[in-house]
């Protein structure tokens, strides 16, 4: 497997023929005066700082001029190897991007007799190295919008999160954390994080020591400058200067270590899930808490796709990703259902709220979502800009994000807590291959959501129960067979401490389908997006849920309405009794 | 120094000794091959594999990603799949690739030399987009072309040039720029205030129902949050409008907001270029744009459809979320006048074209409905017959309705109705069959029934009282319950956090 070839030509300039898939097997490296720095751990990132390179006769991808333009770049090999080689053009526009060599890419065998694999390239190095180019190279997780190292002055995080690691990684908490990770089935290397944290603490100690030394030296120097009487002042001055220089040099060498350690630890710890609620810790599988039989229906298992198209109530189309038009009676029903659910929620003390559908990356990450995952969230196209992967816009709509975006970087007067909101609006979910057919797997759906923010965990748990009550009442008003499910830790999101799903029966799928849920998020989003109670300054606890996902409910209603060829939209108790 | 930097991933567990080693500048390259390195890699590997799946999704996930990675867990929005073959049960329409219809332009009209001067003049009146001379040139080249191949090549060019020739203008439409618009009607009078009326932002903030600052977590400026009664007012306006439209015989349609850019282009809007108003998703999601108005989505609904003449006119309405990548920076439009996303109730109609100005009549009908709605809401407004430069490419004639915004003292557009004649139906392939069975192009007409933040703005600013309260029109009462918005006694509970400065 050792395909990495590093050839030292001279101490100042080397030529490296690097098969970048196999960097991890690097055997030797003389890093002096080299601008190419490699992280040999998980992400295999390469950071290149070729601004000083003047003699790049690079093999096939970069011309010497384009290398010079590649200032401060973090290059991400996101394509497969051969694709990348084809994209010669892209070299010229690759400013500030990450090249990420993914191990899962097909391995191109490198044999002497054949022409070199496409990713074999040569880089000439120059005399100097730059601190900033190095800082990203050591981070073992991808850059995050929540935290950007102080060593990188080209971009600032809008929140610059600092988690309380002392508590988080304290001996008492580590066991709990381990149980949490196990219960969720997360493959997170906690030991590594703890080791890294220790390392950071030690570098920090050293840094503090050096800083103290430096200041005491400069104080001593100041005294010495004023001192006109003592003997051998010049000698002592010289001595101090020498010591000062040495300390400064040591500090200069320590800082990059400190920055990288800080960044690595912070980025890793941001990936830790929130604490599990006691109710979510034990069960291996989802627990059915309650069941509602629903009104008598004569569903024969025909799919709503067939029913609705026959009845002209629905038109599926390819004008957009999984586009669907609701027509006539069905569109009217959608409006009535939205109004019904919103009214119930409002009457239970949730105040109406209308926000945006588009969010910055920081909100997406702050809620524990992976903005790079195209199956998780839609990202908007942007013109070429710096730090695109951590400073983009994402389309999500009515969701936890709507509320956390509102509460981000905001202090709320404690006496006004808990605060309860509800919202009607569009939700957009990026399609995946696993989605259910038709409206059950719709990309776009109108939703009624509710949200509560409060000061402490106990209140949050109470609010969770209250909101589950509201959602359960709403689903019963629909008259569809439904169940209430306590979700096991394995299916929880990073930001969820506890989740209760409300599901309705889908006759055509012969299973229950989620139409709502209530999630307890603890202080996960607020500690990342800086939402605080005032004056205590403690992060808010958040509970968020969906009480109605109209597309899924409509699909279920349609399937419960068909009776042996006779079709009549079922009369919903909630709409029928009121009108 | 760089050699130190290099070691970070390797520095753990036995750190203090190594740190000292490094700081003494005494390490040798052999460190690299030390056991710790391999241990380190070993340790990372398990975690790396979970992250790897994310990375793969990042790079290769597309809208049609077919494989899900084992390590990926279901989201709260997704239900745990019990089978993986749901794909084959998806509607047929979702399995097929979108194919835009070939535009069926009126070549007989466009390429008739007798019309050249007239069309050239029309283009000049409409901001000069489109090159009719080039169309004629290509038309001639097409006629002369010898081989089938050449014909095909010229035809494609001809299509793309012809695509951008604007609709004809109504003979009564005033010629020239926006200020030439003819005021067709003015309804009621400006409300007199015995105090300096506040802007909607001032009113909303005092009511603690509107936030327009500290919105950087979303689309930034031109974004807003409605809280409490203002969010309800928005819903009430929608329901009020829909109930009126239902009485008028409009059929409600719920539309998708994510559209193939070709649909939007066919409706006569540009999706490319620096100044485009259209948001687009990243390429990994496929060619997808966010609709700027339900007119686009409804155009997509009727694409490739053939109607019976007796079923026309067809009148539909849709409530949709509209997304616009606005770039204008006009001071009076700050606040909630020109925003990136808003909810709108749109009217859309299809008519026949039997020489009785059917589409013109429907345009008038939509205009009447709009006026009726705004009269019920007690607004002072004016109807403008828009000048040719403001018609865009698709409209044959367009009426805007502007209401007086006392806060910043300007006429703000709250509605617009256009007759696009056969411009959109020729590009979207929308036909009807006349009584004798002939296939003809339908005409499309559209109009705004309620554009939300502007309507909220007009209602708040025009109905404000000196104490900052607002008395909303009676017409909304059935949908709103109470009709008075009063500033609360307590202080705003939200405080913006100061930006942290970096080290």
Explain this structure to me?
The complex is a heterodimer of chains A (579) and B (503). Helix content of chain A is 36%, strand content 19%. The radius of gyration of chain A is 29 Å and the shape is elongated. Chain A is an alpha+beta fold and 579 residues long. Chain A is built from 17 helices and 22 strands. Chain B is α+β, with helices and mostly antiparallel strands. Chain B contains 16 helices and 18 strands. The longest helix of chain B is centred in the N-terminal third of the chain and has 26 residues, at 35-60. Chain B has helices at 2-5, 15-23, 35-60, 92-95, 107-110, 116-125, 132-144, 148-163, 200-207, 229-247, 261-266, 294-302, 358-376, 423-428, 452-462, 477-480, and strands spanning 182-187, 210-211, 225-227, 251-254, 258-259, 289-290, 306-308, 314-323, 341-351, 381-385, 397-405, 410-419, 431-433, 439-441, 443-451, 470-471, 484-485, 494-496. Chain B has three domains: 2-65, no CATH class; 107-163, no CATH class; 178-502, 2-Layer Sandwich (BirA Bifunctional Protein, domain 2), CATH 3.30.930. In chain B, helix 10 crosses helix 15. Chains A and B meet through helix 4, helix 7, helix 8, strand 7 and strand 8 of A and helix 1, helix 2, helix 3, helix 4 and strand 3 of B. Chain B: Residues 66-83, 489-503 have a biased composition (Basic and acidic residues). Chain B: Residues 60-98, 482-503 are annotated as: Disordered.
The dominant shape of chain B is globular
- Which secondary-structure class do the elements of chain A indicate? alpha+beta
Q: What percent of residues of chain A are in strands?
A: 15-25%
The radius of gyration of chain B is 29 Å
Instruction: Tell me the quaternary state.
Output: heterodimer
Mean pLDDT across the residues of chain B is: 83
Large-scale geometry of chain A:
elongated
The tally of structural domains of chain B comes to 3
Number of beta strands of chain B = 18
Q: Order of strands in the sheet with the most strands of chain A?
A: 6-16-17-18-20-15-14-9
Strand content of chain B: 15-25%
Largest interface: A-B, 159 and 133 residues
Pfam families (chain B): tRNA-synt_2b (PF00587)
GO molecular function (chain B): ATP binding; serine-tRNA ligase activity
Biased composition (Basic and acidic residues) (chain B): 66-83, 489-503
EC number (chain B): 6.1.1.11
